[in-house]
Fold:
Amino acid sequence: MRDFICAANWKLNKSPREAVSFFKEFLPIVETSNSRSKILFFVPAIDLWVSQEVLRDTEIGFGPQNIYSKNDGAFTGENSASVSKEIGCTHALVGHSERRSLFFESDELIAEKVKTVLEQNLHPVICLGESLEERKTGKTNEVIGRQLKAALSHVDSEKKVTLAYEPVWAIGTGEVATPEMAEEAHSFLRSQMNDLKGSAFSEKTSILYGGSVKPDNCENLAKMPNIDGFLVGGASLQVESFSQICTAQY
Ligand code: PEP
Structure:
């Protein structure tokens, strides 16, 4: 059975102090639930150290929201995969649409980042998704197919990655893809993985949905056979809403 994953993307929110107080309230709630969800936190880089202090003896994974393709050198402002690993990170988010659009990350750079993350034995959560314009002009499969092919170009089929399908028009807008729309994209991604890397890879890879996931829409989305969890922005900032998403019975 594939992992069912609930991942938080805090973006540029929460100080180290706020992160610790969130975890202290959140942990007892999820630790006493019998949910099967694996929980991850993608926190601002400045919160990684305190996150490992609180999360290291738990089942919860965590990591940075961005990582560079090189581990060290003259790359001012970037995050290193090897240092992230050294301080206990388990995962790294790669290719978020805000990185692609605001920071001009290309498919090729994202492919290099995925490679570096895997070399450091971190688990990449690779984001992909189409813009509103691309959906309206019928280009969804073309775009996510291209992003997927590039992102997996240096990935051996024995490795483990997670995908996050995040239609750009649904991120932070309150507009959520219907379960059927999300399922259509997820099953397309599954079939593309099958063609690119074989059925074992395709079957073991969890595909998360992201885009305005909330406690009141997560259960319906999770009924779809190819939706294996969520990447959650806004609703991951409050303990109440994120813990409800994590502890729902999927
Ligand atoms: C995200 O940032 O990855 C995201 C899905 O945000 P939101 O849940 O706020 O739409």
Remarks:
- Residues 9, 166, 171-172, 210-213, 231-235 surround phosphoenolpyruvate (CB under 6 Å).
- The chain has a mean pLDDT of 97.
